[in-house]
Every structure is written in structure tokens, then in C-alpha cells.
């Protein structure tokens, strides 16, 4: 059991971190358990299977023979060594986090230490180093928190020295406290509002003072880039549908390109994509090129990835879907292969990969590959079940399969059964897709330009329709044949 948990943790390590761990474990200061040599040997064996750690490759009996070369296999013994190794791994995570702290934080720790020990000269030197570094990081959210801390430490040091000017920095301390609070309030409320969309959270008490915070930000601090970025991001989430908010946000990001922390950009970029995607889902197809441009830009900047270097299945799915709608098949295939081993947030990552692979090949017109992918993988998540069934219907249409009509009927029944599980905004687009398909394949549609045009107009005015671009293309081809 310990080895299983251990492997899950090691799987999350990058190759660099794993190499650092193999060096770390050689120190008796950290590898101080009862079996240090065996612990090190076990790690040597496990790292060979990074990054996939396939269970069929890791035979406990074989590993046991390396760790205990002269003994018969006893699972409990190997489990105890794995437990010791787990302790070393946890120490490494803690020490490594401290080792990789920012330079400013490195000096801040010394500022506090020297102030508490009364070493005024060392205190002032460390404080100067922090302030120099702060000048280079004014666009970071943590800048204002660090500024608050350094000014507070300087104030406390003056009190220690009985300096009568100990209140000299209080106004700046208060201002930095305000800015840090404003940023944090908008950041967390934005995150909560985003989560509420998908999880139906209702936490009105969390939004107390938010109006006052937004007003304070608007009146006093929009010249601070980080404040402006979160202010305009939150405006997008409020769905005021003001194009100027989106443009203002883009202006702030472009003016400070390369200067924001990746963590800040990940959040802000996510809000931008959600805003444009929502406009598209509300029936504005002109938003699609802008959404694809965001996915490309954010992929290049690394803000589609989680801190662990992984990517959510939903993010990958959305990026590929948008690309394919615009005919960017090669980009979609490259993106899929690049992120295949990074997928998280799905019960079966391989099935998600296969579905998206099938989707790419569908847009390539290689229907044999599509049929193979759909036939060999099943989906537990309702979203992918729906998408796979729609793809099957499109496949049967493209290949003139006699099964098309029956699959459409089964699809309508399946969508009806999901009414008690999925929200109406997920049900309606699928129903509209099925209804339009029924009318497209009806015998009276073929060769009837007036009817085809009527269906085209219906598609244009219908706000939410799944597979809109594909349906539009099929109707255009039917018009050409009339």
C-alpha cells in the first residue's frame, strides 16, 4: 500500500525534481531512518519507471530482490522501506519549496530574524536588499504583501530602537495593506464566481464589501497593473457585456507583457477565455477566431497548464474543439500529442485522448480511424458520451450509413434521459442538433432549395446548437446541389 501511494507522489515529480531527490536522499541529515541504504536502493529502482510508472512494469517481487538480495519475498518488509522512503520524499518536498523561494522572500526571512535578534546593521542591510528586489517586481501580486511586511518590520525595528519617528511609514503600510486586500478580494471572488457557474455554489456572504472594494479599485488604483487586471477580469465575470472591459484588459496585459507572474496570468487568461466562450455559446460565431487566438497565445505562454505541468481534460477538449471548428486540424493534432501524458481531471485520460484523436481525424475525413476509435472506447462522463454519440451521427451522415436514422432516434432518447442530470443549457443544444439533423436527412429536403434555406436561417437564429459549424457546412453543400 505504501509503495502505491509513493508511486502516485513520484509520478507528479518532474525529471529535474526526481534527479534532485536522488541527490537529496544521499544526505544522512535527511535520510535518517532505520534503513537508509535500502531506502536509497528502492528509490533507484522506482525512478527507472518515471514518468508513466505502469503498474504492469513494476513487479514488487523483482524490486524486493534488489532491495533484499539474500532474503525471501515478504511484502511487509518492502512496505516498511517504502514507508521510510515516503518520509524522505516529504522532507524533500518541504525543503525544496524553501530552497526555491523568491529572492525577496529569502531576504525577508533574514529581515525578521535580525530584527528579533537586535542586529540592527544586518537588519538594515537585509531590508535594503528586499527593497532593491521589490523595485523589479512591482507587477506581482505578492509585491504589496511583501511591501506591507517590510514596512511593518521597519516600524517594529524603530520601536525597538526607541525611535520617535516610528510612525513615519504607517500611511504606506496602510496603503499597501489596502492594495493587497483589494487584489485578494477580487481574486478569490472571481474564482468563487467561476466555480459557481459549474458547481452551483451559493455563498453571498463571501461577497460582503465587494462593491466597496470594486469602487475603491476603480477610483484609486487602476493605475496599478495587477489591480486593473483583476478589476477588468471581474467585470467580465459579471457579464456586463461591455466590450470595453475586455479591450481594457487586453490593453493592460499587452502594456505589461512578460512582467506579470504566471500565476496571475493563468487566472486572468482563464477569465478571458470563459468570457469569449460564453459569447460564442450565446450565439455569436464571430467570437470563434478570437477564442482560438487566445488558446494559441495562452498555450505559448504556458498558462493553459496547471502548476504541476498537467492540463485539465476540459481545457484540452475546449482548445481542440475550437481549433477544429476553424479547420486548424494540424494545430489540434500537435496540441493533442504534446499534452497526451499531461491529462488530468478525467476518469479515463486515455479515452479522452482517443475521443479527441477521433475528432481530429473526422475533420481530416479519415472516417475509418474515427470508427475504430469510437468502437474501441467507452465513456463514463456524460459530456463525452454526448459528444461521442454526436460524432457517431456525423460519421454515419458522411458515410451514408443506413444506421443514421436509428442512431438519431436513440440519441434523442438519451438526451431526454439526461434531463434530470444535466442543466437545461446543456440539454437544449443537443436537442436542437438532433432536430435539425432530422430535417436535413428528410427526403423532402433533398433538392428543395427553399427548405434548405429555411433550415439555414433557423440555424442562424438559434442561439445554442451543438455542432453548429458542421451543420452549417452540410446545409451549404445541400444548397449547392439544389
Give a nutshell description of this structure:
71% of the residues lie in helices and 1% in strands. It contains 23 helices and 2 strands. The mean pLDDT is 86.
Write structural notes for this entry.
This protein has 482 residues and is mostly helical. Among the domains are: 2-99, no CATH class; 103-168, no CATH class; 384-482. The protein contains 23 helices and 2 strands. A two-stranded parallel sheet has the order 1-2. The longest helix is centred in the middle third of the chain and has 30 residues, at 170-199. The mean pLDDT is 86.
Q: What is the 3D shape?
A: flat
Total helical segments: 23
Which spans have pLDDT < 50 for at least 5 consecutive residues? none
Sheet with the most strands: spatial strand order: 1-2
Say how many strands there are: 2
* H and E string: HHHHHHHHHHHHHHEHHEHHHHHHH
The chain-level mean pLDDT equals 86
Helix content: over 70%
- Rg estimate, integer Å: 29 Å
The biggest sheet amounts to: 2 strands, parallel
Distance between the termini: 67 Å
Percent of residues in β-strands: under 5%
Category from helices, strands and their pairing: mainly alpha
Amino acid at each position: 500500500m505504501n509503495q502505491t501511494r509513493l508511486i502516485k507522489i513520484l509520478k507528479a515529480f518532474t525529471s529535474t525534481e526526481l534527479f534532485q531527490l536522488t541527490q537529496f536522499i544521499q544526505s544522512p541529515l535527511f535520510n535518517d531512518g532505520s534503513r537508509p541504504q535500502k531506502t536509497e536502493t528502492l528509490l533507484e529502482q522506482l525512478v527507472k519507471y518515471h514518468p508513466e510508472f505502469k503498474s504492469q512494469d513494476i513487479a514488487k517481487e523483482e524490486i524486493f530482490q534488489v532491495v533484499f538480495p539474500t532474503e525471501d519475498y515478504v511484502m511487509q518488509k518492502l512496505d516498511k522501506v517504502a514507508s521510510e522512503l515516503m518520509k524522505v520524499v516529504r522532507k524533500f518536498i518541504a525543503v525544496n519549496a524553501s530552497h526555491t523561494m523568491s529572492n525577496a522572500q529569502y531576504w525577508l526571512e533574514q529581515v525578521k530574524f535580525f530584527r528579533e535578534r537586535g542586529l540592527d546593521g544586518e537588519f538594515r542591510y537585509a531590508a535594503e536588499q528586499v527593497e532593491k528586489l521589490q523595485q523589479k517586481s512591482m507587477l506581482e501580486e505578492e509585491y504589496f504583501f511583501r511591501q506591507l511586511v517590510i514596512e511593518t518590520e521597519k516600524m517594529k525595528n524603530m520601536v525597538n530602537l526607541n525611535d520617535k519617528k516610528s510612525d513615519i511609514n504607517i500611511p504606506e503600510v496602510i496603503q499597501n495593506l489596502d492594495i493587497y486586500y483589494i487584489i485578494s478580494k477580487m481574486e478569490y471572488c472571481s474564482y468563487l464566481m467561476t466555480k459557481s457557474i459549474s458547481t452551483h455554489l451559493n455563498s453571498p456572504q463571501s461577497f460582503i464589501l465587494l462593491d466597496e472594494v470594486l469602487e475603491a479599485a476603480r477610483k484609486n488604483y487602476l493605475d496599478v497593473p495587477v489591480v486593473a487586471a483583476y478589476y477588468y477580469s471581474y467585470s467580465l465575470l459579471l457579464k456586463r457585456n461591455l466590450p470595453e472591459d475586455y479591450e481594457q484588459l487586453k490593453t493592460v496585459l499587452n502594456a505589461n507583457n512578460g512582467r506579470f507572474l504566471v500565476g496571475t496570468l493563468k487566472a486572468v487568461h482563464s477569465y478571458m477565455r470563459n468570457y469569449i466562450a460564453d459569447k460564442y455559446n450565446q450565439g455569436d460565431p464571430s467570437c470563434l477566431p478570437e477564442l482560438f487566438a487566445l488558446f494559441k497565445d495562452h498555450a505559448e505562454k504556458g498558462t493553459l497548464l496547471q502548476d504541476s505541468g498537467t492540463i485539465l481534460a476540459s481545457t484540452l477538449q475546449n482548445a481542440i474543439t475550437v481549433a477544429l471548428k476553424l479547420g486548424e486540424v494540424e494545430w489540434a493534432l500537435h496540441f493533442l500529442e504534446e499534452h497526451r501524458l499531461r491529462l488530468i481531471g478525467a476518469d479515463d485520460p486515455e479515452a479522452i485522448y482517443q475521443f479527441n484523436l477521433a475528432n481530429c481525424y473526422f475533420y481530416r475525413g479519415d472516417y475509418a480511424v474515427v470508427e475504430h476509435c469510437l468502437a474501441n472506447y467507452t465513456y463514463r462522463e456524460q459530456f463525452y458520451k454526448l459528444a461521442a454519440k454526436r460524432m457517431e451521427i456525423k460519421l454515419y451522415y458522411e458515410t451514408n450509413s443506413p444506421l443514421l436514422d436509428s442512431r438519431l432516434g436513440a440519441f434523442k432518447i438519451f438526451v431526454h434521459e439526461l434531463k434530470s442530470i444535466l442543466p437545461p443549457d446543456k440539454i437544449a443544444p443537443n436537442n436542437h442538433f438532433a432536430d435539425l439533423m432530422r430535417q436535413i436527412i428528410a427526403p423532402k429536403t433533398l433538392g428543395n432549395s427553399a427548405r434548405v434555406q429555411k433550415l439555414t436561417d433557423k440555424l442562424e437564429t438559434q442561439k445554442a446548437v451543438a455542432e453548429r459549424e458542421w451543420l452549417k457546412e452540410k446545409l451549404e453543400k445541400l444548397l449547392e446541389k439544389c
